[in-house]
TrEMBL record:
<protein>
    <submittedName>
        <fullName>Uncharacterized protein</fullName>
    </submittedName>
</protein>
<feature type="compositionally biased region" description="Polar residues">
    <location>
        <begin position="36"/>
        <end position="50"/>
    </location>
</feature>
<feature type="signal peptide">
    <location>
        <begin position="1"/>
        <end position="18"/>
    </location>
</feature>
<keyword id="KW-0732">Signal</keyword>
<feature type="region of interest" description="Disordered">
    <location>
        <begin position="36"/>
        <end position="66"/>
    </location>
</feature>
Length: 309
């Protein structure tokens, strides 16, 4: 659009310049005409035999005047037509500008879509965030039917083995978030069955990234169940990946903390299993993982008391 404005300015300037030239040459022609008249007066005293030459010179001067005026007027008319063409082109580019803007927006939207898809692939557990409505939290808290339906749909996706692991993990991440928003640790939609389905993804996936992300979901799950604790213990003892060992150990400690006063029997059982791995002399890796987690002497003493030792 700046180029069009420049062209319009150039056209206007050219027209103004042409008008200036026209005025200049008109003045110059008048001067020359006066000079011719003066010359005519001076030669009136000459012989009649000289009159053909005088008439011929005056005729040339008039012809020159008419020629310059016509050329300048034609030039001005051309510049005016050119200026009109530039203005029409500028108005026409307004429509083209709208088309160009739409094309640019389409490219940006496609770029954003691909970036969002890549983010979802890189971290499927939290890929749902960008698609949530702004009032999602409030609606969960104020509309029980909405919250129940959403949770039911999400649980169905977690358990649906026809979906991709990424889709199932995303559904689990959203379901777990819903429970935190509603301040619930578990209910009929968020239970051992859903957590175990995610554990299966971690156990069976050939994608190391999915294995890790699925285990992270389980390790931070608020669902307390002895079967979950046993699965985490198996990972600590058998998984060669040190990060996954550590993550499973954190999940086991989380099960112990959350058992609290609500399930003293399970808490005692978990305390004994944690101490057994902490003191494990047969596996230095398992022992090192647990000892890194339990560095506090007071925490160790608390676990021993909960174990009944």
């Amino acid at each position: 659009m700046s180029q069009t404005k420049s062209n319009i300015a150039l056209g206007v300037a050219s027209a103004a310049f042409a008008l200036t030239l026209y005025s200049h040459f008109s003045s110059q022609t008048n001067i020359e005409a006066a000079q011719v008249k003066q010359h005519q007066s001076s030669v009136n005293t000459r012989q009649v035999s000289n009159e053909p030459a005088h008439v011929n010179e005056a005729s040339k001067s008039n012809s020159y005047d008419e020629m310059d005026s016509s050329a300048l007027i034609a030039r001005i008319e051309y510049l005016e037509e050119r200026l009109l063409d530039i203005e029409n082109q500028a108005y026409g580019n307004g429509g083209n500008s709208d088309v160009m803007e739409e094309a640019i927006l389409a490219v940006l939207e496609e770029k954003e879509r691909k970036e969002r898809q890549k983010r979802n692939e890189d971290n499927p557990v939290y890929g749902f965030y960008e698609d949530l409505p702004k009032d999602y939290d409030l609606k969960l808290k104020t509309d029980p039917e909405f919250a129940s339906k959403i949770s039911q749909d999400l649980k169905g996706k977690v358990l649906d083995q026809t979906l991709t692991p990424q889709e199932r993990l995303s559904a689990m991440g959203q379901l777990q978030m819903n429970m935190y928003i509603l301040n619930r640790t578990q209910d009929e939609m968020f239970d051992y069955e859903t957590v175990d389905a995610v554990l299966e993804i971690s156990r069976n996936s050939a994608d190391d990234k999915l294995k890790v992300q699925a285990l992270e979901v389980v390790a931070h799950s608020p669902v307390v169940d002895s079967r979950i604790a046993k699965s985490l213990q198996d990972i600590i003892e058998k998984e060669p990946n040190k990060y996954m060992k550590t993550m499973a150990a954190e999940g086991l400690m989380g099960q112990y903390y959350q058992a609290g006063e609500s399930n003293p029997e399970m808490k005692q059982q978990l305390a004994n299993e944690i101490l057994a791995m902490y003191d494990n002399a047969t596996s230095s890796d398992v022992q090192a993982v647990m000892q890194r987690l339990i560095r506090d002497g007071e925490l160790l003493e608390q676990i021993r008391r909960d174990a009944g030792r």
